[in-house]
Structures are given as C-alpha cells and as structure tokens.
Amino acid sequence: MKLLPHRVATPLLSLLVALSWSPPVARGDDGYTPFEGEKTAWHGGFDRYDFVMDEGSLTIAPSRRPEGEGFGVKAADGRGRRCVVVVPKAPAPGNPWSWRGEYWDHEPQAEVELLRRGFHVAYIAADPGKHWDAWYDHLTRRHGLSRKPAFVGMSKGGVNAYDWAAAHPDRVSCIYADNPAIRPEAFAKLADLARHDVALVNVCGSQDFLLERHTLAIEARYHELGGRITVMIKDGPAHHPHSLQDPRPVVDLVAEYARPSSPADRPSFAGDGFAKSHYYAPDGTYVRLEREDTYATCRGPGFVECYDRYDDRTKGPWGLGGMAVIVPKAAAPGKPWVFRAAAIGPDAAVDRALLRAGFHIVIPPLLAQAGPIREQWDELYRTLVARGFSPKPVLEGAGTSAGEAYAWAVANPDKVACVYGENPALRSLMMKGSILDHLEPLAKAGVPLIHACGSLDPWLDSQTRVAERRYGELGGRMTVIVDEGKGHHPTAPRDPKAVVDLILARVDERNRQASESPSHGH
C-alpha cells in the first residue's frame, strides 16, 4: 500500500478558496452543522469535502481536490495536511463517524456501508499528534459529530488508531483494525481502553506475519481485562487482501458500538464506584466467507453472548476485591441470581447457561487476608434483596470455594433456593468445624443439594459421596451428576444441560413452596 506523491493545490489557490468560503450554517437541533465548500463525489454517490490543515497554525480551510486524484488522496508535498470528510445521505442519531488515518480509499467497503447507515467518514494524513487533535476538535465542536468516533485502521493504520486511542481513551467508541500492528506503548495502555469500554474488532489473515505477536496478544490481554474484542481470522490469506468483501459482519459491530449510551443503560445497583467491563467465553466458531471462498475462525462478542459486568471498586486494597455482578440480557421473573463463592472464569458453562436463562451472577467481596467474611456476604445479600433480587439465591462454588457457599447456606438455610457445587471440597475459612458435620440445618429447611463431579476427581469419594450419604440420612434431597472419565479441571460439566435443568427446576420448586407458605407476605 505504498502511496505515491502528488501535487496539492497551491497556497494561493487554497487562500482564494478559504476567502470565498461562506460561514457555516446554523446548527440543527442535534448540534450538527453541515459541511460546506466544494463538493465532489465519492463511492456510491456520497458527497466528499476536502480540506487542508496548516501544519503550523492548525487552521483548517476547504480545499479543491486535485485533478486526477479519483476517490483517493495522494501524498501531500509539505504545504498542508490533507483532510477529507464524506457525508451520508442522512446522518444517523448522534452523528456517528468513522476515522481513518492511513491508506485512505484502500478497501473502502466497510466505510461505504457505514455511510449507508448514516455515518460520516473522515480522514487525516498520518501520523497521530496535535494535528489529529485539531481535526477531532474541528469535527466534534464545529460540526457536531459524535465525541466518540469509530476508527478504521489497516496495517500501519491500525498502529495509528491504537496510538491515538491509547492517548485519548475517552474519545473513542471502537476500533476496527485490519491486520494491524500495535506499539508497546499502546499495548501497555490497553487497560485504559478497556476501562473506557472501547470495543475492538480485529480482522486478520491466518498467515499474516503480524497475527501472532499483535492481534493474538491484544486479544488475550483485552479479554483478561474484561474488554470487548472480536477477532476474525481468515483462513488462508496473509497480510493482503485487507478487509472483508462483504463488510456487514464488521459494520454491524461498529454500528452497535458507536450507538450513544444512556444512563438508563446502567443498572440501579451500579453507582459511580462501579467499573463496567464484560464477561464472555473465548469460544471460537468457523464461519463461511462466501465472497472470499474460505472460512474464518471467529471469537468474541460478535459471535458469542457477551454480558455486562460491574465491579465495586470503592472498597478493598488497590480497589480490588469488591462485589461483582454479571447482568443477563433480560432478568427472569422474580430476578433470580447465583451467589457464586469465587471469581468466575471463561469455562463457567453452568453460569453462562443461567445468564441466558435470566439469572444475575453475583460474586461476593473478598477483602480480608483471612478470606471470605460472612458479615460482608450478609450485607451484600440484604442490599440486593432490597433492590428487588430474589430472596432465595442459588449458592454456588467450585472446589474449595464450594465450602464457602455451603458455610453461608448453613448459616442462612431459609434464604437459599439450592446449593450447587462443582467437584466440591466441603471445607471453609468462613466456618469452624467440618461442613459435613453441619448439614442438618439445610436438610430441615428442605434445601436441595446438587453436585457435578468428575469420576476421576480426587475429592469425589471423601467429600461428595460422604455428603450424599449423610444428607440422605438427615432426610435431605441431594443429586449427584458424575461425568465419567473427567478429573478436577475444568470443574464445570462437559454438558451443562442436565445440571442447569435441575437448578431451574429446584429454583421454581422453592419459589412455589415459598408462595404457598401460610406466612408468605406476612
């Protein structure tokens, strides 16, 4: 993609154009001021406006597109920095726009589709710095475009996009990067992008020389940070060709991420001290690309369910360890929830299925060096129930964290729908003595127990089988589902359906019993 030099408009011609330029028309109700100057056509019959930015003063004036330039932009000759805006037929709500800072008009199909959806498309010659800041201010303040543009960056353009976004994470909605590279300085600031909820979409060839140490490194780190990153790896191509012949999978995501957010989008429990991130599995799917006559390995929120996560950063050392809530797309009736006794990983298949069923997943605080503290769990329970959450959550834990779920359930048997453990070890830092010796309160309250275990798990015989025998002797009901040939990790069952169906049935049953109780509502 080497760009050839060309001759730009002379300083005298630029001055004459600037002097003859009419003042901008009045802003519309949404703050938008239309662009003026000489119009030319761009792909699909869209209006294009050219500008030149003075390298020293950063003033921006309309410019005439040089003869023979076509849809592209030839290299500048040092007499001004080239800038371009292409205008949609009708701007979308919020006046979204995409920004490209390298290789203008190379594989422009994504931008043409964005124009059809009401995006403006803008360009400024590389590289990021004060000129880019001035261009951003011109478009947002003078013309009322969105304060969070979407970047389109191919190859070195991806470097530019990541550089500017890392310096201005609060001014970017998303980045579509195509076979990009990223500098170490920008990579080190990915946490800032995740904190500002900047969504990433990377499209790469499977044989691109930048894939392993750039896109795959970005993907791993961003997923770890709770940021949204969708990756499409085209099977077969190298660094070229860029983009997708049918850009709709990418444009769908960009259009979604650029949509203005509203305070109403944030749940009522998540105050200013809560940091938003995202929870999703890094599962991949193999998608047919008809026009490329190949397939792509696709991962991330564009292809799997992605849920909003809110972490309380107001307590604990270094802002860590506070409660976390993962929010379903739509809460089920009664607002059921899982009181999960430990951090959640991407392999939590049962939790993901319960999210799909409308359950919230709630992770209690872990603030003390001694481990979980019952009083903090109690406070969290009271807070959520006061905000409309079900008074009978599912207590859940895997491995030894299941012991903490049991400890709270034993102390609060009337506040539990059921207890679910994955390869559990029933020992607790929250409770003195063996949990196996304290199952009677749960049995008396009729709390169902569910264990999902691998047949090769070392805790199976000494923990689950003992609990199963003792709970039965106490008159309690316990179901054990054994996954043959499976060890301790991953703790989730290979097929979560049987476990999830059982949890849903037990929750419905407990809720029905509570509603039929003579004391219900008194």
From TrEMBL:
The organism is: Aquisphaera giovannonii
Give the protein name, as stated in the record.
Answer: Alpha/beta hydrolase family protein
Domain of life where this protein originates: Bacteria
| Alphabetic keyword roster | Hydrolase, Signal
Output the Gene Ontology terms for molecular function: hydrolase activity
Report the leader peptide range. Answer: 1-28
